[in-house]
Specification:
The protein is an alpha+beta fold. The chain is built from 4 helices and 6 strands; from the N terminus they run αββββαββαα.
Length: 187
C-alpha cells in the first residue's frame, strides 16, 4: 500500500512539474514587451562550454521594448553578441563594447497570430505529457491490483485521485496558456 501512495505523490509532483515547465517556457516567448525570461534559453560558447547567458551577465529591462545586457566579463561581449544573433529573438543586439542593448520592434498582427498558434501547440504537447503520466500511473496501479497488492476498491479510488491530479494540472496549463494568449493579443 505504501508503494501506491508513493506512486500517487510522484505522479502528482510530475504533473505539477510539467505545468510549471510550460509556464517557464511560455515566459521565453516574445510578446511585445521586453522580459529577461526571453533570454532564458540563450547559451553562450564561453571558453568552449555552453553557458547560460544569465550566469554571465546582468539582464535589465530599460523600457517596455528594450533589454540591456551587462556582462561581468567584458571580454565575452563578442561571444554574447554572437549567441544573441543566433537565437530567434526577432531583434538584433547592439553593443557599445561594454553593454549590449536589444530593442524589440512592435509585434505585427500576423506575428501575434503565429505566436498564439505556437502557444496552443505547446499547450497540447504539455497536456499530452500530463496524460502520459496519468496513463503510466494507472497502469502501475492495475498491475498492483493484479498482483494482489491493492484491492479493487482502493484501485478505483487511486485512479480517481490520479484523474483529479490530471484535471488540476490541465486546468493550470489552460490558465497559463490563456494568460499568455491574452498578453500576446494585447496591443
Amino acid at each position: 500500500m505504501e508503494g501506491v501512495t508513493e506512486l500517487l505523490n510522484k505522479t502528482k509532483a510530475a504533473m505539477t512539474q510539467v505545468a510549471d515547465k510550460l509556464k517557464q517556457d511560455l515566459g521565453t516567448l516574445r510578446t511585445g514587451r521586453a522580459n529577461p525570461q526571453m533570454l532564458e534559453n540563450v547559451r553562450v560558447d564561453y571558453y568552449g562550454a555552453p553557458t547560460p547567458l544569465k550566469q554571465m551577465a546582468i539582464i535589465n529591462v530599460t523600457d517596455a521594448r528594450t533589454l540591456e545586457i551587462q556582462p561581468w566579463d567584458v571580454s565575452a561581449i563578442k561571444d554574447i553578441e554572437k549567441a544573441l544573433q543566433q537565437s530567434d529573438l526577432g531583434a538584433s543586439p547592439l553593443s557599445d563594447g561594454k553593454i549590449i542593448r536589444i530593442t524589440f520592434p512592435p509585434m505585427t498582427e500576423d506575428r501575434r497570430k503565429t505566436l498564439s498558434k505556437t502557444v496552443s501547440k505547446m499547450s497540447e504537447d504539455y497536456k499530452v505529457t500530463v496524460r502520459n503520466e496519468r496513463r503510466d500511473a494507472i497502469e502501475k496501479i492495475k498491475k498492483a491490483q493484479k498482483a494482489g497488492e491493492v484491492t479493487e476498491d482502493d484501485s478505483k479510488r487511486h485512479e480517481a485521485d490520479i484523474q483529479k491530479a490530471t484535471d488540476a494540472a490541465i486546468a493550470l496549463i489552460e490558465k497559463n496558456v490563456a494568460e499568455k494568449e491574452k498578453e500576446i493579443m494585447t496591443v
